Amino acid sequence: xxxxxxxxxxxAYLSADAMDALEQFRAAHPGVPLxxxxxxxxxxxxxxxxxxxxxxxxLALKPGDEAGLHVHAWRSLFATAGVAxxxxxxxxxxxxxxxxxxxxxxxxxxxxxxxxxxxxxxIKKSREILAAQKIELGSSFRAAGWLAAxxxxxxxxxxxxxxDLSAVPPVWFDEVEVAFLRERLIARWGAIxxxxxxxxxxxxxxxxxxxxxxxxxxxxxxxxxxxEHVLGAVRALAAAPGxxxxxxVGFHMETAxxxxxxxxxxxxxxxxxxxxxxxxxxxxxxxxARRTLDAKRD
Length: 298
Description:
By secondary structure, this protein is an alpha/beta fold. It is 40% helix and 15% strand. The protein has one domain: Glycoside hydrolase/deacetylase (TIM Barrel, Alpha-Beta Barrel).
C-alpha cells in the first residue's frame, strides 16, 4: 500500500510554531518523505522578506522530498501576475464575506472564477517567483479549497502540471464551520469516496492524472479516523493483492502546530500494528498509478 503525505503551504503566513511542528513530525517519522505544495503568495505580500521566506522553505525541504504548486487567489499574487483580483465567489461563506488578513485577501476566492488565461498567468508567475529563489517545482498541482474546476485543470495542464491533487471526499468535511465548503466540494467532485483511486481527467490540452486526497488533511480528521482510513485501504489491498492501493493524507503548513500531531499519532499507531505501508512522494505514487492505469487500459 502506498501513502503520500502532502503539506499545503497556504500563502498566508509562516510561524515558528508551525516550523517546529514540522521538525517534530520529521523526528517522529524519519522515513516519510513529504510533498510540499508551495505557494508563491508569501513573496508577494507588501512587506515580504524574500530571503527569510526562502530560508524557511529550504529548512522544510529535505532530501527525498518533492515540491509542487498550491495556488490560492491572493490579491497580491494575482496582481503581481497582472490579473485583476476578485472578491467572489467564496468557497467558505454563502454571504461572500472574505477572511480578514493584515496585508492581503482572496484566500477563499474560488479559482474557477478566473479565465484560463488569467489562471495561466497566475500559475506561470508563481513558478517564476519560486524559480527566482532557486526552488524548482515538480509536476503536481493543487487548487485552493480543492476546487479544481475544469478551467483550473486546463490552466494547470497548459503550464506543465500533469498531476492534480485536488479531488477530495466531501465526507471528511463534517464540521459546522466548513459546511459551505462541503457543498462546493460535492458540487465539484460528487460523492467521491475515501476509497477513490487515481484516474485520468481529460483537458483541452491533454489529460491530467488525478491523485485524490483520500484522507483530506488532518485539520478535518482525528488520529483515530486517519488510522481507520489507512486500515481500510489495507483491507482493500488484502482483498485484491495484485493491485496497488493509494492513500493520500496531509496537513497545512500554517496550522501544523495544531494538526500535524494528529497525523503523527496515526502513523505511529499504524507502524506499531506493522501495517504493510510504503511511504512515498506524490511523484512516485503518480508514476506507479500511470503504469497501473495504462496496463488496465491495455
